[in-house]
Amino acid sequence: MQILKEFKEFAVKGNVVDMAVGIIIGAAFGKIVSSLVADVVTPPIGFLLGGVDFSNLAITLKAAADGAPAVVLSYGKFIQTVFDFAIVAAAIFMMIKGINALKRKEAEAPAAPPAPSPEEKLLTEIRDLLKDKK
């Protein structure tokens, strides 16, 4: 019974719930980024590169024989995966850069200076009176 009580306390803590929400939102955001890259960014790049697809590049180490499959080193799939990663990383970088620029604009909006406190007003008057005395 003690273990169930401890598990319940653990499961309903704010940190666990926050983490679960973060994972769910992260998975949904991952789908958005994947769609952005696959449907918006990659087609123009593929068009500019002439439809280059590295995934077909491979070296056959051992041919298929007697029902045994061939042993193939598919280095092209690795190159294509690295290329796709670079595109995803660049797209995320540009999105984060844009978000940060928007945040900076909000932060740069000058706030109205606070009104001087009564003590500051009094000190200013004293300073001005001392200046006039000289």
Write the layout of secondary structure elements.
Layout: H1 2-11, H2 14-48, E1 59-62, E2 71-73, H3 75-108, H4 118-133
Antiparallel strand pairs: 1-2
Care to describe what's here?
- With 134 residues, the protein is mainly α.
- The protein has four helices and two strands.
- The protein has a two-stranded antiparallel sheet with strand order 1-2.
- A hairpin with an 8-residue loop joins strand 1 and strand 2.
- The longest helix has 35 residues, at 14-48.
- The protein is elongated, with a radius of gyration of 31 Å.
- The chain crosses the membrane at residues 20-38, 78-96.
Q: What integer value in Å does the Rg equal? A: 31 Å
Count of all domains: 2
> In which range does the helix fraction lie?
over 70%
Strand ordering within the main sheet: 1-2
Shape: elongated
* Class computed from helices, strands and strand pairing: mainly alpha
Give a count of the beta strands, DSSP E runs of length 2 or more: 2
Number of helices: 4
Percentage beta strand: 5-15%
Separation, N- and C-terminal Cα atoms = 84 Å
Give the SSE string.
HHEEHH
Major sheet characteristics: 2 strands, antiparallel
- Low-pLDDT runs: none
Keywords: Cell membrane, Ion channel, Ion transport, Membrane, Transmembrane, Transmembrane helix, Transport
Function: Channel that opens in response to stretch forces in the membrane lipid bilayer. May participate in the regulation of osmotic pressure changes within the cell.
Protein name: Large-conductance mechanosensitive channel
Subcellular location: Cell membrane
